[in-house]
Write a structure and sequence with these properties.
single chain, about 90 residues, alpha+beta, about 15% helix, isomerase, Topoisomerase II, signal, DUF2790, isomerase activity
Length: about 90
């Protein structure tokens, strides 16, 4: 896994909010906003994090989602990969 993606994901999950289960998306999506997949090298315009999905309790890469507003106030949902919470260091 790319270190930059992991660091970005950690920063996003640090701004946690409660996830609401919605069909096709793990964050609240009242306006049927399309989910955008994050790719290395992307530079999303994130002005405000609205919520993040819950990180599964598994050891390995998992997809999570983050809802955010850009600098013009438009809502986006981004899907990205992180390591789940189920890994132990022992």
């Amino acid at each position: 896994m790319n270190i930059r993606v992991a660091l970005i994901a950690i920063a996003f999950t640090g701004a946690s909010a409660h996830a609401l289960a919605m069909e096709g998306s793990t964050v609240a999506n009242p306006q049927s906003t399309p989910v955008e997949d994050y790719a290395y090298g992307d530079h999303p315009d994130i002005a405000k994090v609205l919520e993040t999905s819950e990180v599964p309790n598994v050891c390995g890469p998992v997809s999570v989602e983050m809802a955010y507003e850009d600098s013009s106030g438009q809502r986006h949902i981004m899907r990205y990969q992180i390591i789940g919470n189920g890994c132990s260091n022992g």
